[in-house]
Design goal:
Length: 300
């Protein structure tokens, strides 16, 4: 059965002026339910994560600043959000959802978190709408529990997974692959295990050609036993922050190819949604929903 992590807190932690980046999180499950792709049985609401699991990834001083709401004004500005207890609880819930998805993926092949992909959170700081790095937390959880021995993170958001790269820079058990816009934020990039930097206006042909040339060889060489996939839809030509020229059909083909590689190699995959900033929220929601539609069609 396709299992999808969703909690109402995903969409409602912010003042009205900060709502736009969040509204997609309630619209995605609504659309999937409306069209009959899923039923309520497919959805599950994650609980909060235990503190000791967070501390496998994030430094104690930083976590203490979050839970006591004591980030400096400069640190808070870098996150892009006004800090609140509800916002911290949102991040904790998202991270728990990504961990829970790991167990469903091992059972069914795939599981998806409606939110997540908070790849700009470092061990000791947050930035770019990210406070806690859900994929890094889940990856370290799998390693700590002995569930996984080698993890591949496939980050196809338009922005480099700089926090993820920093977290795993000295960990050979996790291979970080980020394919992102060269001329896009963050302008000071970290070093992933593999970075592919895309020029502005990259189209379907170039984007998909590079992905199809890279991912199968990467899986064959690294021999992971688990994959995390960050499926940001800010690669779309319509995205106001993306600078690329990938069509919605090209974005869907990207997801299809990643899923087919996981199926072919019998690798469980957990998907976190990542970014999407097209002016029409319907474009964001439909592109994200394509990821869920494909997961259902290909795995079940």
């Amino acid at each position: 059965m396709l299992k999808i992590a969703f909690h109402p807190i995903y969409a409602h932690p912010l003042p009205e002026g900060h709502r736009f980046p969040m509204v997609k999180y309630e619209l995605i499950p609504e659309q999937l339910l409306h069209e009959g792709t899923i039923t309520n049985e497919n959805l599950f609401a994650p609980d909060l994560i235990d503190e000791e699991i967070i501390l496998l990834t994030h430094e104690p001083d930083y976590w203490n600043k979050l839970k006591t709401l004591s980030l400096t004004p400069q640190e808070e500005r870098k996150t892009g959000f006004p800090l609140s207890q509800q916002l911290v609880q949102r991040e904790i819930t998202i991270a728990r959802g990504t961990i829970d998805c790991c167990y469903f993926a091992m059972e069914y092949g795939v599981a998806l978190n409606v939110a997540g992909g908070t790849h700009h959170a470092f061990t000791n700081k947050g930035e770019g709408f990210c406070l806690l790095n859900d994929i890094a937390i889940a990856a370290n959880y799998l390693l700590n529990k002995g569930i996984s021995k080698k993890i591949l993170i496939v980050d196809l958001d338009v922005h480099q997974g700089n926090g993820t790269a920093e977290i795993f820079q000295n960990n050979p058990a996790v291979f970080t692959f980020s394919m992102h816009g060269k001329g896009n934020w963050p302008y000071k990039k970290e070093r992933s295990d593999l970075d592919i930097e895309l020029p502005d206006h990259t189209d379907d042909q170039l984007y998909l050609g590079l992905l199809k040339e890279t991912l199968p060889h990467l899986i064959k060489r690294e021999q992971p036993d688990f994959i995390f996939y960050l499926s940001g839809v800010d690669i779309l030509a319509t995205d106001k922050l993306g600078k690329l020229s990938v069509s919605k059909a090209g974005c869907k083909e990207r997801d299809r190819f990643v899923f087919e590689q996981c199926i072919h190699n019998k690798l469980p995959v957990v998907v976190s949604m990542g970014g999407g900033y097209s002016p029409r929220v319907a474009d964001i929601v439909d592109a994200h929903c394509n990821t869920f539609r494909l997961a259902k069609d290909l795995f079940f």
